[in-house]
């Protein structure tokens, strides 16, 4: 025992001294030093010598990366097959560059809003606001590269073996093959984290120049005068925010009867007022873009034929400068040897149980030592959910049973203003309450009466809290308003911890901050008034 704890102290000391040195500055230029750390850490690893690795992770998006880091924190000998794409969708083609575009275009919008600026006593004189498309695109690409470099450095620094090739299953347990070299590695546990790719509906031809998915849109190769966005989910909505700020007109084409169909209805209605009605945006709902043909920039328009979603009859054809296809994402699970392991997918999604273990067929037992995390299992297609599932899988591998509470994972749409949520929509809550036999309580806070929001000239929006009347437990929170994506975290923590509105109403919120919008809602839930 004493010997073991002595070793633990030694390992901890060495690890700590390794990672707190100034040399570990998450910068690609420190790679030389980092690779020394790699050898060092491998020597410390308490791995089973039977296998090349304790844990092999296929795919290095945020899910795979999160799993790899947590695996090393358990001193497990870890390899990640990166497919030469460290950071995956989120870093290279998703969250990170899209937020960079939103940050830059958001500033353009704000500086062009004369009424807003004059309320602060500010005016922009002369020729007004100028921006360069190339500069904004460079900001997004530069940020993606920087974050990717940080991720690579952290992997190497922590002693993860990064295998650049694609990893594929061989059909035998505990094996992963590097597709590039053909080398087969043995691994005690395998985590599949191959992520997702854009879904392109039949009839739509993508050239990534005039008709593009988010992959092409993020490069901002042009700012079209008129762009059709097919799909009004959060990716389409974020891009409408970017495009309208930079001067484009937008037409949404939505197959369902309502815009923003997955959002809470009350929030979607408010979003329609704040993010659509006052902007150069129009829309068609209940129609499919059945045929989309690319154009030639400056010469030939993009043609979009639309059919009624129910009758399938042709309703309209429009000619636009560009079309963005934002119709969701599909799992990236082809050609990775799943069939050889007897794994049946559900529309490409890999089924898992609550411990992230792969279930090969409906109702069958999990495959031992095989896990799947992130977008590929379809449980919740968000970056932080992927990472949380990766950590959870490692906990289970380490012998500490763990399950992710997906009900407490927040989500956000980074428009101006932002929308954020945790838990089910109000409509879903009503159904759940009826089914499970509890009464839904509802309380609301407003940005209109919030000093900080008014100081920023951004008094639009609400936060609504849905809770169980009987216990006070918070079930869901939906916010639209300034910095909603940051505000939601307090609510997500409350859902995760089972905190009640009574408890939350007695917690002190800083004045003057936007958090007081939530304070108002929590207090309102128990009959108190916020001042
Ligand atoms: C435009 C856009 C904006 C988004 N914004 C947000 C946001 O603001 N917040 C948020 O939470 N989420 C956002 N998302 C979603 C988020 O990007 C995904 O949920 C997240 O990236 C999923 O992570 P993952 O690790 O499961 O998969 P991915 O990030 O897709 O990574 C999987 C990786 O595995 C690689 N791979 C696949 N097969 C193999 C193989 N056989 N061998 C080796 N490597 C392989 C892939 O190339 C990829 O690099 C956004 C997505 C898009 C497209």
Polypeptide structure, described:
It is a single chain. This protein is an alpha/beta fold and 531 residues long. The protein has 3 domains: 39-197 and 328-402, FAD/NAD(P)-binding domain (3-Layer(bba) Sandwich); 211-326, FAD/NAD(P)-binding domain (3-Layer(bba) Sandwich); 417-525, Enolase-like, domain 1. Helix content is 36%, strand content 21%. The chain has helices at residues 2-20, 31-44, 62-73, 88-93, 95-112, 114-119, 133-157, 214-217, 234-245, 265-277, 383-397, 426-436, 451-455, 484-497, 501-505, 515-525; strands at 53-58, 78-81, 161-163, 167-169, 175-178, 184-192, 196-198, 211-212, 226-230, 249-254, 281-285, 287-293, 302-308, 314-320, 322-325, 329-331, 370-372, 411-413, 418-422, 440-446, 462-468, 474-481. Strands 1, 2, 3, 4, 5, 6 and 17 form a 7-stranded mixed beta sheet that branches. It has a 5-stranded parallel beta sheet with strand order 8-15-9-10-11. Strands 18-19-22-21-20 form a 5-stranded antiparallel beta sheet, with helices on both faces. α5 (95-112) runs parallel beside α9. The termini are far apart. The structure holds flavin-adenine dinucleotide. Residues 58-64, 81-83, 85, 88-90, 93-95, 98, 166-168, 193-196, 214, 235, 332, 336, 374-376, 381-384, 386, 414 line the site of flavin-adenine dinucleotide.
The share of residues in extended strands comes to: 15-25%
CATH architecture of the largest domain: 3-Layer(bba) Sandwich
Report mean pLDDT, rounded to a whole number: 91
CATH superfamily of the largest domain: FAD/NAD(P)-binding domain
| Bound chemical compounds | flavin-adenine dinucleotide
Question: What is the CATH class designation of the largest domain?
Answer: Alpha Beta
Principal-axis shape equals: globular
Q: What radius of gyration results from the CA coordinates?
A: 25 Å
Give the helix proportion (percent range): 25-40%
Tell me how many strands there are. 22
- Give the helix/strand class: alpha/beta
Give the helix tally. Answer: 16
CATH topology name of the largest domain: FAD/NAD(P)-binding domain
Largest sheet: 7 strands, mixed
Quickly count the domains.
Answer: 3
Uncertain stretches of 5 or more adjacent residues: 1-45
Our measurement of the CA-to-CA distance between the termini, rounded to an integer number of angstroms, reads 58 Å
């Amino acid at each position: 025992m004493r010997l073991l704890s002595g070793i633990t102290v030694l390992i901890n000391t060495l690890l700590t001294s390794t990672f707190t040195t100034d040399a570990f500055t998450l910068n690609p230029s420190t790679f030389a030093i980092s690779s020394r750390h790699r050898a060092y850490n491998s020597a410390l690893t308490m791995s089973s010598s039977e296998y090349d690795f304790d844990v092999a992770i296929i795919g290095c998006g945020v899910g795979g990366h999160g799993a790899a880091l947590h695996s090393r924190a358990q001193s497990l000998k870890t390899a990640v097959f990166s497919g030469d794409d460290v950071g995956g969708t989120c870093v290279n083609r998703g969250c990170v560059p899209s937020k960079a575009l939103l940050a830059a275009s958001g500033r353009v919008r704000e500086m062009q809003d004369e009424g807003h600026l004059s309320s602060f006593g500010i005016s922009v004189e002369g020729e007004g606001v100028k921006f360069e498309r190339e500069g904004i695109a460079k900001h997004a690409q530069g940020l993606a590269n920087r974050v990717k470099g940080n991720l690579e450095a952290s992997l190497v620094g922590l002693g993860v073996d990064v295998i650049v090739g694609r990893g594929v299953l061989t059909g035998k347990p505990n094996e992963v093959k590097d597709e590039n070299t053909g080398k087969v590695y043995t691994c005690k546990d395998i985590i599949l984290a191959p992520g997702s790719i854009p879904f392109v509906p039949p009839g739509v031809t993508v050239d990534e120049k005039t008709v593009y998915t988010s992959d092409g849109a993020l490069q901002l190769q042009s700012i079209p005068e008129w762009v059709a966005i097919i799909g009004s989910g959060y990716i389409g909505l974020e891009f409408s925010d970017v495009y309208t700020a930079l001067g484009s007109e937008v037409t949404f084409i939505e197959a369902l009867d309502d815009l923003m169909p997955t959002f809470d209805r009350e929030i979607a209605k408010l979003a329609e007022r704040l993010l659509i009605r006052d902007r150069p945006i129009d829309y068609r709902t209940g129609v499919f873009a059945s045929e989309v043909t690319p154009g030639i920039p400056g010469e030939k328009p993009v043609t979009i034929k639309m059919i009624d979603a129910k009758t399938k009859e042709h309703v309209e054809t429009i000619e636009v400068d560009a079309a963005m296809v934002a119709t969701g994402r599909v799992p990236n699970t082809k050609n990775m040897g799943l069939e050889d392991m007897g794994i049946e997918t559900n529309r490409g999604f890999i089924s898992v149980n609550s411990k992230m273990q792969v279930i090969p067929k409906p109702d069958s037992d999990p495959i031992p030592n095989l896990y799947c995390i992130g977008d590929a299992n379809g449980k919740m297609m968000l970056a932080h959910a992927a990472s949380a599932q990766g950590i959870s899988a490692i906990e289970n591998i380490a012998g500490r049973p763990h399950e992710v509470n997906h009900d407490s994972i927040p989500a956000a749409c980074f428009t101006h203003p932002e929308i954020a949520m945790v838990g089910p929509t109000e409509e879903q809550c009503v159904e759940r309450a009826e089914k499970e036999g509890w009464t839904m309580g509802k309380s609301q806070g407003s940005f209109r009466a919030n000093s900080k929001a008014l100081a920023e000239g951004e008094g639009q929006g609400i936060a609504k809290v849905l809770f169980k009347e009987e216990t006070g437990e918070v079930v869901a929170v939906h916010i639209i308003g300034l910095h909603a994506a940051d505000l939601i975290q307090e609510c997500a923590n409350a859902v995760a911890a089972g905190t009640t509105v009574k408890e939350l109403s007695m917690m002190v919120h800083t004045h003057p901050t936007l958090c007081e919008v939530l304070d108002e809602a929590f207090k309102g839930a128990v009959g108190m008034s916020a001042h």
